[in-house]
Amino acid sequence: MVQGGRAAGLDFGEDAVTLGTGDAAVLATPPWESQRLLPHLETPAGYAPIVNLHYARPGPRAGALHRHAGCALPMGAGAAGGVSVTVSAGDDAAREDQATLGPRAWAELRQAALAFGLDGDWPEAPPPCRVVKERRATPRHTPGPPLRPPRLPLANLALAGDWTDPLLPATIEASVRSGEAAAKALLR
Questions:
Q1: Which domain range does residue 183 map to?
Q2: Do the Cβ atoms of 140 and 147 come closer than 8 Å?
Q3: Do 77 and 95 share a domain, yes or no?
Q4: Over the stretch 97-155, which tens digit does the pLDDT of each residue have?
């Protein structure tokens, strides 16, 4: 709820909170949700997907880079271990069916693991795999000046989120820094 250029309340569906004159809030939502809540807010026009593939792979920890995926990261050791592959800006991977994507990415990961002599068993047949596709993971950067939404779209409401400061890519660091900037803006 907005009244007089200030956030007057927060409606969580089943619960609502009224904000007093000295209260403030930080809105840390994806850009499309921020725009839904604040229709006047300008947000990124397009988004790039990230695709994660999680393979069950018992054995020692391993990490690698390869041509299909941005990176491969260990998920632990022993029988409960595995390896995760992240495909950033994964437009093609997001459109591909898991039945072909999982084996293709595994073949590339396996090739890199064997080329670098990584420990453990890297069988030709791909292990069980779970694919997670986040279709709007990061803002798509376009030519021209970067979008800079106002830190304080309302007098007592600050924006936070990796998308609010385009000087860094959409990362955890950008999210943390934006949260710190939002808190500082409200404390001024």
A1: 2-45+142-187
A2: no
A3: yes
A4: 999 999 999 999 889 888 888 877 889 999 999 999 999 988 887 888 888 899 999 99
